[in-house]
Amino acid sequence: MLNILKNFLNDVKKNYKTLILAFILSAIFWLFVSIQVLPSIERTIGNIPLEAPLTEYMTQHNLQIVNVTYDEININIEGKRYDITGLDANDFFASVDLSSIRTAGSYTLPLSVSSKSDRSCTITNIEPSKITLEIDEIISKEFPIKGKAPDIRVPEGYYPSDITTTPATITLTGSASKINQVTEIEARSTYHGEISETYNTGSEIFIYGAGGVRMSTEGITLSTNSVSVNIPIFKQKELPLSFTLTGFPSNFDVDSLKYEIQPKTLTIAAPDVSIDNLSELNIGAIDISDITVNSPNSFIPIVLPDGYKNLSGNNTARIEWKFDDYMKRTFTVDRENFAIINVPNNYDVRFITEQLEVTIIGPADAISDLSAADITVTANMLGQSIHAGSQDVPVSLRINGTNQTCWASGSYKVTVSASTRGT
Q1: Own/partner pairs, 280-285, CB within 8 angstroms, 24+ separation
Q2: 81 pLDDT band (50/70/90 cuts)?
Q3: Using CA atoms, how far apart are residues 97 and 305, in angstroms rounded to an integer?
Q4: Who's near 199: CB < 8 A, 6+ residues apart?
């Protein structure tokens, strides 16, 4: 056996050129057979990429593909071995014809596959032959943002005012069917703890639909993901209410008027510490001439300065006058008790009105002691637009004496005649 192996090796050494030639001829023969005897082969290529460009109509009407249902696109190809051996998925692309799409919805469309290569081959099968596309209208819609800070605390005497956000609105872009379900956008503060002054914090954005159900943000693009929550903190205080009485003569005893004010106090919140220096809240003025016995209640609207908060919610204060022993009486005041003051130097002014009926209100015993002679009617020409001829001017009434407890109810006018001096 050993001798046979040695003899074979010796023959190889002597005839190696012949062996090489035989190998080359065999290869040429195999190539010839592959091309001529077996001219074509089949191959399967998987994971073909899908191309689905939108049509002009879809672009104009905001129609987009939101979902494509298929696992993997595979093809079978046939061709000459030397043409198709090196081909792979990157040499092909799958496409669908979207020209029939006019509205949102679900569409099942046939697939076609084309070759990107200049190598000759035939596509014999496409799997799957059809795919399902979900088409939806993509819209953008602006929503106001509601700020929330559920995890903050404020110390006693402080009040968290209306929370705002920056920006105040946000734009959502996505499927119309989903965007139209949105009912509220909330920016929830990420701050936890106690604050005693106005504070700005970061936030987490929540989207809510019908019934307050939180929606997923999947498929929705937000114009911003950064929203700050502004938490104004006000100083809070309960203050007694007061008002100013006006229109009374200097000899009137203001303290003689008894009343009750409702509500007695008002809880307000101020954006600064100025409220600490207030001991009461003056809500306005009442002219004494507007107070009548027949209607013993006066009303003042409660209006706070800009930026202040009315936490009690009362919009009107009622002043109830204590008129149990009060009465009213009408007096006729003669011209002898009329007076004109502050007449310009270039005019002469005289009264045309001879008598004036006035209504006086006061305690019954004080009214009983009054007479028309105790009442002075004064026409103050300061600030009046005087012209030659007759005109009506307002007058003020004064009851003579000190510490008067009676007053004139209503407003009055008299007629005067004016002429320029020297005419």
Answers
A1: 280/239, 280/240, 280/241, 280/242, 281/239, 281/240, 281/241, 281/242, 282/241, 282/242, 282/243, 282/244, 283/241, 283/242, 283/243, 283/317, 284/243, 284/244, 285/243, 285/244, 285/245, 285/246
A2: confident
A3: 67
A4: 152, 191, 230, 231, 233
pLDDT, position 421: 84
For residue 383, which of 396, 401, 370, 399 has the smallest C-alpha distance? 396
What is the average pLDDT across 180-191? 95
Question: Rounded CA gap, 258 and 321, in Å?
Answer: 6
Q: Does the pLDDT value for residue 409 go beyond 60?
A: yes
Between CA 5 and CA 15 the distance in angstroms is 15
| Rg (the chain; Cα; Å) | 50
Q: CB neighbours of 319 closer than 8 A, spacing ≥ 6?
A: 243, 259, 260, 261, 286, 297, 298, 299, 300
State the pLDDT at residue 8: 52
Whether the pTM exceeds 0.70: the reply is no
Is the pLDDT score of 423 beyond 60? no
Model pLDDT for residues 105-125, shown as the tens digit of each residue: 999 999 999 999 888 899 999
For residue 300, which amino acid is it? I
**Which strands form 347-351's sheet, in the order they lie side by side?**
338-341, 375-380, 389-399, 412-420, 347-351
User: What confidence category does residue 9 fall into, taking pLDDT thresholds of 50, 70 and 90?
Assistant: low
Strand-pair partners of 139 = 174
